[in-house]
């Protein structure tokens, strides 16, 4: 919010052009070895040390590759300023590599409070650094500084929290098996990344940095809820599901509870973004970004679709079905790309509409494929989605009526607050008391409280 008022769309567009390319290499930062560490029943210190040095080697290689390919980025976009930006951003790969196994160790030990503190602290530090650099007048270099400070601060934090010093690399057992698992995950991530980011390359190439700046900010705002919910809940769910993968009834029950909670939080966010896009953009980014509002609105359906399909990866990864996950990604990618290409002649709004349409059409077949043979049925998923969705639609109709009535009476911020409160009250009332979800969410919250008490007692006794 602060940087959007200090910088212009072109500044964000320049960095967005580079990250669209470096993001592909960024997927190799741990080669999937952190997930392999978490998924295995037992991991020795020798294995962790060997994986650490493999990660460092991968980070160094990616840093060098980014520097080597920097001139290519300039040629693709015909923008000479991208050369220095790309070279400086290459250091992020090394910073990330140094902390991958320490972060995986904390996740494996279910130390999610420590991880949350580290992530929030690193984000706060990197944000303050970026604001300071922007205030000094270095424009897009503020975004570069933020992109480097975040992984550096995170790595320092996980080293301190994990209190683990890696030993020498050795030929540890099952390393090749773990690398195959991680390699498949990495390939899956690459395919997914290309599917979700090709449109930024296309828009930057054919429509220029200002357009990609507008689209990129709208896209980033849209992905904040899904990225954060999926990452935070996903870390817990993946670790826990991996531990109980042999008990399918318990596995199914645990997953559906977590899935229901994610959807219940996502649906009102989707509605707010879709119905009140103009006011939200004005509040969050300022009046200079009003052209991003229609893009933001057209992208809103993807919040719900991604909330539906992203958690299915928890199921496949924890059960070791990484090959199936890769196959689903290989089908998803061309479908989404076709949506981009159809919409590209119409600019960022056409691309946003094409993306959302493709995701909506593929959501149900994708879900059925992912859950086949896992003990979780498509009916389980549809029932879990249907109840909060019905509640949200009723709440949306009432909230939109209130919002429309308030338009001539008050400015955007109080108008959105009132409409949002109406939406949440109606949504919660229907979800809890009409479709009968109150007991489910109360049980989940009670389970979280019990877990917190157990952790607190363990800390006190320690």
Reported for the largest beta sheet, the result is: none
Structural class, judged by helices and strands? mainly alpha
Low-confidence stretches: none
The number of E-state strands comes to: 0
Radius of gyration, rounded? 22 Å
Average pLDDT level: 84
Distance between termini? 42 Å
Order of helices and strands: HHHHHHHHHHHHHHHHHHHHH
Number of domains as seen in the coordinates: 2
Description:
- The chain is mainly α.
- It has 2 domains: 1-173, no CATH class; 208-462, no CATH class.
- It has helices spanning 2-6, 9-26, 33-39, 45-77, 82-89, 91-97, 100-108, 112-135, 141-162, 175-207, 209-243, 248-275, 277-284, 293-299, 301-309, 312-318, 322-343, 347-371, 378-406, 412-434, 438-461.
- Helix 3 (33-39) packs across helix 10 and helix 11 (209-243) runs antiparallel to helix 12 (248-275).
- The longest helix has 35 residues, at 209-243.
- The chain is globular.
- The two termini are 42 Å apart.
- The model has no long low-confidence stretch (mean pLDDT 84).
